[in-house]
Amino acid sequence: MAKTIAFLALSLLVLTLVQAQHPVSRGRARSRARAFIESQCETTLYSTMCVSYLSPYVASFTKTLSHRQLAQTALKVTLARAESTQAYITEVAQRLNKTNGPESRSVRECLDQINDGVDQLTKCIKEAQHIKENGGSSSDFTWHASNVQTWMSTALTDASMCIDGISGRAIGGKTKALIKARVLNLQHVTSIALALFNRFAARFRAAYVVKP
Questions:
Q1: What is the pLDDT of residues 36-74, one digit of tens each?
Q2: Angstrom distances, CA of residue 145 to CA of 68, 81, 128, 137
Q3: Beta carbons within 10 angstroms of residue 98's beta carbon
Q4: Residue 5 burial by CB count (10 A; 0-12/13-18/19+): exposed, middle or buried?
Q5: Is 184 exposed, middle or buried (0-12, 13-18, 19+ CB in 10 A)?
């Protein structure tokens, strides 16, 4: 009887220790994942914003610290921001549509740029999915990576053109300020995603692409 009680007590102790270690392990994994995100964000122009936008996805990196996955996550965050900006400017354009004056035309032109940016970012996400984590055809990688970099650069240009187009005096102060703030935020997030993709691409080339 005493041996049975001792065995049960020992089993309970072992189970308790195992269970206690799981939260610690998860906590360490999350800390490691956050450190990974912070270190990668340091390479961007807007490191604080980068950490802020990507920190909610820490759980995605607790098992594997993947540069490819980080770049793809940043792309998805950027597309979500672009679509949010698109929805806001569409709403403003609809309100101003009745006037058909310079203010309305400027906002519609800005919206055209943002619409194109959304299209470019959508293509980027689809194209990036063709890039494998560990190797693959060098020519395929070069083709896909070049497309992503080109389309992301175009999305950046779209945001810049929108800002330039509404910077004149044709748009009222409050409307102009709100649009510029949203588009500038989009521009910064796009810059972050491009920087992280470029970093991933550079690592990929160094590891897998055969030099001629």
A1: 999 999 999 999 999 999 999 988 777 778 899 999 999
A2: 11, 22, 7, 12
A3: 8
A4: exposed
A5: middle
